[in-house]
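User: what does the whole thing look like in 3D?
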Amino acid sequence: MEQTALPDKRYEFTAKSKTLSYVLIAIGIVSIGISFATHSHQAWSNLLWNNFYFMVIALAAVFFLAIQYASEAGWSIAIRRVPEAMAMYMPWGAALMAIILIGNYIAGSGDGHYIYHWWHHDVYDPESPEYDPIIAGKSGFLNMPFFIVRVLFYFTVWVGFALYFRKMSLKQDLEGGSSHHLKLRTRSYQFLVLFAITSSLMAWDFIMSIDTHWYSTLYGWYTFAGLFVSGISVMAIILVVMKRRGLMGHVNQHHLHNVGLFMFAFSVFWTYLWFSQFMLIWYSNLPEEVAYFVVRQEQYQGLWIANFFINFCIPIFFLMTRDAKRKPMILLVMGVILFIGHWIDVFQMVTPGAVGAGGHIGLIEIGTMLGFLGLFRYVVLSHFAKAPVVAKNDPFMKESMQHSF
Amino acid sequence: MSKKLVHGIFDEEDTMMQALTSLKQAGIKVKDVISPYPVHGMDDALGLNRTRISICCFLYGITGTCLAVLMMWYMNIFDWPMDIGGKPSFNLYKNFPAFVPVTFESTVLCAAHGMVITFYLRSKLIPGVEPTVYHPRQADDYFVMTVEAGDEAGAKAAEKALGKAGAVEVKS
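Assistant: Here's the predicted 3D structure for the full assembly of 577 residues, as structure tokens:
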């Protein structure tokens, strides 16, 4: 394999491409504006749902980088700049999350509608008519100071490691040698341990605590599986688009196969957890547990079925064969389908709990998503344009270029 | 035996892989290589067809799925209707969540066992069948390359080519 053709190929983030992002952001702002202006009861949950979705896609990219460094995987060096650029959305996602949480807290103090029911002070007060012994019993974990500490901890860890991985990778590009690789490996071990804890806890904090009475021990894993599939799907989309532009000529069908394998395997893994969570609750039939699924199955039946169909049936049939994973167009289409599928999945996790029966996905919701997509696209592509598309001085570069199986 | 088999024994993966290329260039057809472990890229270098065992796997899996569903329908719905999870629907479709784990396990069981048995039958590793051993160390640490030579002259050429390519031993 030739080494000479590689160095310093760059993606150019053109003015035309930037305009598309601006238009998407404008659509998003208008949509959010309309939903607040019309006092839509879904306004806050739309923000939480969409921002959470894009934030965890960035988180999945950080996680992907960490597993590659920790396992010293060679193949992924060729595509590493893609998850690196995606990980750079992490500070934006975290900052917007903080703004949304604070905004909802302030707005909720006025009109009494928090996304998180446990934010009400009355539910902890035995004298109050709103007193809720179940939530009060959880106050050791679900209390505001501890919540703030936890959220700050997640954001520090995620943003810190995302920036560190990026910084070291760019430094390696200039300086070469194996010292950066070894440092990145050590940091990745640390991140993976912290990620195991924070990914579970953040799923409880940001999503599961919306349905405050309900709990599921599988929830952290379920959220993790979903976020990893959506992250890999977005990675596949960017990879294939860049390959079609001629920037990723060094990415061969074996690299694509690996990305396809991740998409396929984690779609099945997601279904496994989604179903395990459902089946155990369905089978044991305890009122406090089934409440979660009753509202989703009865009020959101179409989306409930679509969620399973899009995220399981489509990938298992279209990504199962070896040839399918090697065709860029199939990966692109599957990436888009899974991206939409997991967007619907996060809707199912957030909205029924936040607004009850009346939630829906309409034009406003799609517009909100496009707004976040525009911002995500802008941040990711502008970072992608800042560095050469190949991390050329990695000690495993040669192995990655020759990757085949 | 109308066709003569020539075996070249190699002790290094790299030498063996290079020998595959050099024999191909010399116009000698390599029939098969017995290796102690899977070698990346060897199938392509040999020009072997893609394995069809994945098709078998799918068919065995579907068989397992159907058998499991049939069994559970007969036992829990038809022959002795069961009240599953406090939901007395007595209906296969409505009770299906409870049947998914068994269906899944049965699919895996049939697919895995079917594949292993098919593989043994296909490679003639059946009890009672005398195994073909070209070299006592063929699956320990040695690679055995089998060349199918048309006649005496072809066999001589193959022996020479194998020896030149670095085989530690050539047997015919």
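In plain terms: The mean pLDDT of chain B is 88. Strands of chain B lie at 4-10, 30-34, 143-149, 169-171.
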